[in-house]
Amino acid sequence: MGLTSNQQQLIKAVAENNMQLAKKCAIACTVEDTTQKNAWFCEKYKQILESSGGNMIELPYDLKSILCVEDISNSFKDDRYYLSDREKSVFENIVRMKKVNERLMEMGIPYLNSALLYGESGTGKTTFGRYVAYKMGLPFCYLNFSSLVDSHMGSTSKNISKAFNYVISNPCVFMLDEIDCISIRRSDSSDGGASGEMARVTITLMQEFDKLTNDIVVIGATNRMDRIDEALLRRFSLKHEVKPLEREEKKELVYKFLDDVGMDFPAKEIMPLIERNKNQSMLLNELVRLISKRIYAEAE
Ligand SMILES: Nc1ncnc2c1ncn2[C@@H]1O[C@H](COP(=O)(O)OP(=O)(O)O)[C@@H](O)[C@H]1O
Ligand SMILES: [Mg+2]
Q1: What does the alpha-carbon distance between residue 115 and residue 138 come to, in Å, rounded to a whole number?
Q2: Which CATH superfamily is domain 61-241 in?
């Protein structure tokens, strides 16, 4: 039997050192093989390939270090995501505004579909952005603020403009994560130097915001709401505090996760975890440790 076209593509991608494409082709290979004897192998490696980071979309060279664009249609684990009623209303609002954006534009009503999520770290702000992209079937696009700011002084503003230009012509969910890294209140930064640069960056950010049209979805996130410039805050049509999950909600999240990975633990092992851990991040870490212990013990 000869090579299928997916297998050929895979070989070509590996030869060209294009791992993104190689992964995509490898997944396609696992899907096209329907023989019973390979079922276990294909399922296993499809899972691993899909969870080893998202599928990054190739960007032009000058954007690569600033912006990340991910196709998460295969990698987001919807079955493990717990959507609280509070975040559900934000999600529904974003979807509604996206649906009516054209109509609003026709009526001459500008509305930027932008939401700023604030709240403690580990409460699921970034994950919510990914969820929105997944549900809307759009690429998840995020600014890499750390490399933006690390790069030479003065080039930060230019980089921000480049990123916004890309977003304007490529439909996506645009996430400005940890926005406090770059936007500080201009009143806090009158001493010139590094903070003077940051004040300029904040102004650029706002100017770029004002170029965005109704059809673009922007999600900002921060755990330092107090550091964000008021004028930038106004650019977000919606501000929403992401609160740590309640006890019952954490329980649901844990059982969703366990269900999805096909594992079961007695309540007496799960409840202390839920009581002890304040946010999703800590809770899931501990849950993974619990699961690992079980797998390890079973392998012994
Ligand atoms: N609602 C949720 N359902 C399932 N997992 C979640 C949820 N929120 C967060 N997580 C998990 O918790 C971790 C931390 O979430 P993250 O979005 O990074 O928090 P934040 O951006 O607020 O610091 C992530 O690994 C994510 O998988
Ligand atoms: Mg985050």
Answers
A1: 17
A2: P-loop containing nucleotide triphosphate hydrolases (3.40.50.300)
